[in-house]
Amino acid sequence: MEIDIRELETYQELAHDGAQSAARSLSQLTGISTHVQVTNVSLMSSSDLQYEFIGNEFAGVNIDLTGEISGEVVLAFDEQGRRAITDTLVPADDPEKKKSSIEEVGNIMSSGFVDGWANYLNAKIKSSPPAYIEGTGTDVLPKSATQEDNYLFVFRSRVEATQDGVSEPIDFRILLVPDSSSLEKAFEPKTDDIVSVEKLKVFNDMTKEGAEKAATNITSMTGIDTTVEISRLTLVPIEDIPTEVGNKRYVGTVMPFDGKFSGNLVILFDQPSGRAVVDSLVPMETDEQWGSVEQGALKELGNIMTSGFVDGWANVLNAEIKHEPPQFVADTGSSIVSPITAQIAETDDHAFMLDSNIQTNSDQVFTCQMLALPRRDELEQALDDLLIENSNNTRVDPAELFDR
Questions:
Q1: Domains, the chain, ranges and CATH?
Q2: What value does the mean pLDDT of the chain take?
Q3: Which residue, among 360, 341, 359, has the nearest Cα to 350 in the 3D structure?
Q4: At what angle do helices 197-222 and 292-317 cross, to 10 degrees?
Q5: Which H, E and C letters describe the chain, residue by residue?
Q6: 254 has which bridge partners?
Q7: Which of 372, 335, 338, 332 is nearest to 355 (CA)?
Q8: What is the spatial distance between Cα 229 and Cα 285, in angstroms, rounded to a whole number?
Q9: In which band, very low, low, confident or very high, does the pLDDT at 403 lie, cut at 50, 70 and 90?
Q10: What is the pLDDT of residues 215-249, one digit of tens each?
């Protein structure tokens, strides 16, 4: 199946407008201030989508769509959001009324979310009555995301809301998972800017395998047992990327790469993880937190991680991709990626972002995020040239990485 990238961008913008409409409806109903932080469309496996919801309690509604767009919409409020909504609308302690209030809010919000799509398509999109959902992980996800481990296109909006007297922000998510027949019709090529979904899947698999090599290299060098938890390919407005990465403080490396396609690979460790990596690599105490010794250790690790990550792309594309020496960074995530996105924004308004999260299976706290931000036109050309039969050529001898 081939999709029109420009149409995909349009649908991403429709999802963003729909999320804003839904957020406004919530504000009007409850008085809670809302702000749509980011809306994107991701190609990801169902298991990766499930992982995003593991461990968190949510309540909300599930709505089936039929018509020009068919699939499922989920509005999921975190526990604090659920309490804020129900306490505002139903002050009395009546569980059934509180449940009904979530259904009512979900129904009104979802109508605002869907209307923009119907107007754009000049077609009817029917919504089922909202079904109340509550629980953790897969309990609140669309049914299509809980079946076999297949790839899904997921339109995802994250909304932050604040309420007077509440210090912590309220989080709620809006997910739209269209079914495959609906996708094929909606994204039918109308311009020359097209890409094969099958090739996108291959590239996403390549990215996950590259992240797994990077995780193996972390373990080999530090002794910290790590695994790849999430890997996805996301089309996102460039202006939203700094918000997507967030304002948490990180240390890590930025490495430009060039060849068949060019861009930047960003490796970010949260502060405790960066410290744990340095302590395992540097067998002596130093006076500085991120002095030359610590920076050198992270750059060495970043260089080896990047080699494994990029070489998989080169093998499948049958082309050379080189990366420059790593640059050490220590700042908030948004500040680290802003100079990169500013360069991309000179020629594009959307970007493909390849995002992998590496974590540990042990009790030790460890988080590493790898972000690849390629030049979109070059990536699209590389995908056009990609031969799917080369998709098994991603294996790189780990010994070669340590000889570089």
A1: 2-187 (3.40.1550.10), 194-390 (3.40.1550.10)
A2: 84
A3: 341
A4: 140
A5: CEEEHHHHHHHHHHHHHHHHHHHHHHHHHHCCEEEEEEEEEEEEEHHHHHHHHCCCEEEEEEEEEEECCCEEEEEEEEHHHHHHHHHHHCCCCCHHHHHHHHHHHHHHHHHHHHHHHHHHHCCCEEECCCEEEEEEHHHHCCHHHCCCCCEEEEEEEEEEEECCCCCCCEEEEEEEEECHHHHHHHCCCCCCCEEEHHHHHHHHHHHHHHHHHHHHHHHHHHCCCEEEEEEEEEEEEHHHHHHHHCCCEEEEEEEEEEECCCEEEEEEEEHHHHHHHHHHHCCCCCCCCCCHHHHHHHHHHHHHHHHHHHHHHHHHHCCCEEECCCEEEEEEHHHHHHHHHHHHCCCCCEEEEEEEEEEECCCCCCEEEEEEEECHHHHHHHHHHCCHHHCCCCCCCHHHHCCC
A6: 266, 327
A7: 372
A8: 32
A9: very low
A10: 888 888 888 888 887 788 899 999 999 998 988 99
Give the rounded distance of the alpha carbon of 280 from its chain centre: 29
Is 167's pLDDT higher than 70? no
Taking a C-beta distance cutoff of 8 angstroms, is the pair 326, 299 a contact?
yes
Residue 308: predicted pLDDT: 77
Who's near 118: CB < 8 A, 6+ residues apart? 67, 68, 124, 125
Residue 7 CA to residue 197 CA, distance in Å, equals 14
Q: 244 with 337: CB under 8 angstroms?
A: no
Residue 380, amino acid: E
**pLDDT at res. 148:** 66
Q: What's the pLDDT at 195?
A: 84
Do the Cβ atoms of 36 and 16 come closer than 8 Å? yes
CA separation for the pair 225, 209 (Å, rounded): 17
Residues 283 and 285: their CA atoms lie apart, in Å, by: 7
Reference 328, options 234, 254, 264; nearest CA is 254
In terms of residues, how long is the chain? Answer: 404
pLDDT at 401 over 50: no
**Prediction pTM value:** 0.85
pLDDT band at 136 (very low <50, low <70, confident <90, very high): confident
pLDDT, average across residues 306-333: 86
Q: Which of 62-76, 93-107, 110-124, 353-367 has the lowest mean pLDDT?
A: 353-367
